[in-house]
């Protein structure tokens, strides 16, 4: 089972001064990897900003970045839970096509209101997850095999249901992916006030949560980041949120609706993985399944609900994908599972399980999104884009394994 270094008792000030620098740096634990991932994202953004002659961070391009990669972020949130528990899911791309087809057919051919069609799609995603979770958790078939079969099964069902492109979906449904928050407060110097307000609220919420977490650690005499490092982290985060907010406020529509959706999911699932019994059980199972079982964790139940959860999130991604395309396509979702898996590993998830964070998966998805957009702006051949992304994934996993070997030695 992985060790959470935040549970290490804090040393008295006099003793902490005698701790070697290398040991103090190790005290940061998994945070060092997270800082490194975030730093890599910043470097990649700056690199492509230079290589694209400043086009990457144009307001409309930044908004498009989130709209085009929302499906990766949504799937990565569910996939990181699967990977942390020591499993893999190869079926999410096919589930996206299958559920998207059902939602589109329900809206266009069956005259179902699009809100109800979305609820039907979410329920269908839960059923798909329950189907696969049953075989994995209670029958004992490896997730790789079950989801490989699911990839073929649900792709075939998508072809049967959709057949040809199902278009003619209502504009209100399409706005889920292509639309922005209504500009109800007007503009200030051509900047959307609603976007500025959303960015401010996002930072305030993050600040409050960080201060509460730090107060809790101090109350229980647990290890905390150094005050200087904590303040520096908040300053950098504030700068990042401020820059993103200002850029989006000058985009054509302001804050994309899908960005708000992804933000809500990140907050909810970060809480689930970090502050709930279920989240601790997921990490425990991935760290050492036998020890978790001996500790009283119902591993079958946890595995089952992990796959129900990713089925629901695949349905959410299906709605976003269908809305962005304005139609259901049987070939939708091709390689989505690979994008989500790559985002998780680039974001710090361990191949062996037990390690991974929702925030890291989101940063990994953004790294892939920036690579895609930057290379597209530079008119790089799609074949080379795939090769570059594959190389980045390989390097990320190699870096993780090398770090583990060094830690072990």
TrEMBL record:
Species this chain originates from: Cellulomonas fimi
Protein name per Swiss-Prot or TrEMBL: Xylose transport system permease protein XylH
Lineage: Bacteria, Bacillati, Actinomycetota, Actinomycetes, Micrococcales
Key words of the record: Cell inner membrane, Cell membrane, Membrane, Sugar transport, Transmembrane, Transmembrane helix, Transport
A Pfam family that the UniProt record links to this protein: BPD_transp_2
Domain of life: Bacteria
Matching InterPro entries: ABC_transp_permease (IPR001851)
Principal subcellular localisation of the protein: membrane
Subcellular localization, as worded in the UniProt entry: Cell membrane
């Amino acid at each position: 089972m992985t060790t959470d270094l935040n549970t290490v008792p804090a040393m008295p000030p006099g003793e902490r001064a005698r701790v070697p620098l290398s040991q103090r740096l190790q005290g940061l634990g998994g945070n060092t990897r997270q800082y490194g991932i975030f730093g890599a994202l910043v470097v990649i953004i700056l690199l492509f900003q230079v290589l694209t002659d400043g086009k990457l961070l144009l307001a409309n391009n930044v908004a498009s970045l989130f709209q085009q990669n929302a499906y990766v972020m949504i799937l990565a949130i569910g996939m990181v839970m699967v990977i942390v528990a020591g499993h893999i899911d190869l079926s999410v791309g096919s589930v996206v096509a299958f559920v998207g087809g059902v939602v589109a057919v329900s809206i266009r051919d069956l005259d179902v209101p699009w809100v109800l069609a979305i609820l039907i799609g979410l329920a269908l995603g839960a059923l798909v997850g329950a189907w696969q979770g049953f075989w994995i958790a209670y029958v004992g078939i490896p997730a790789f095999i079950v989801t490989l079969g699911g990839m073929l099964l649900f792709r075939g069902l998508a072809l049967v249901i959709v057949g040809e492109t199902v278009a003619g979906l209502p504009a209100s449904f399409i706005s889920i992916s292509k639309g922005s928050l209504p500009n109800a407060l007007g503009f200030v110097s051509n900047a959307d006030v609603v976007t500025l307000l959303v960015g401010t609220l996002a930072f305030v919420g993050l600040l409050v949560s960080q201060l509460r977490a730090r107060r809790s650690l101090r109350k229980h005499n647990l290890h905390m980041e150094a005050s200087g490092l904590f303040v520096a982290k908040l300053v950098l985060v504030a700068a990042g949120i401020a820059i993103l907010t200002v850029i989006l406020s000058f985009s054509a529509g302001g804050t994309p609706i899908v960005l708000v959706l992804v933000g809500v999911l990140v907050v909810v699932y970060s809480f689930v993985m970090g502050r709930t019994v279920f989240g601790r059980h997921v990490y425990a199972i991935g760290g050492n399944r036998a020890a978790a079982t001996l500790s009283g964790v119902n591993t079958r139940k946890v595995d089952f609900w992990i796959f129900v959860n990713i089925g629901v999130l695949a349905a959410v991604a299906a709605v976003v994908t269908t809305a962005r395309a304005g139609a259901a396509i049987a070939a939708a979702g091709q390689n989505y599972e690979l994008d989500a898996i790559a985002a998780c590993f680039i974001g710090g998830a361990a191949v062996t399980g037990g390690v991974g964070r929702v925030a890291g998966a989101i940063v990994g998805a953004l790294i892939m999104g920036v690579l895609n957009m930057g290379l597209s702006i530079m008119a790089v051949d799609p074949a080379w884009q795939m090769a570059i992304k594959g190389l980045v994934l390989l390097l990320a996993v190699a870096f993780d394994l090398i770090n583990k070997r060094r830690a072990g030695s």
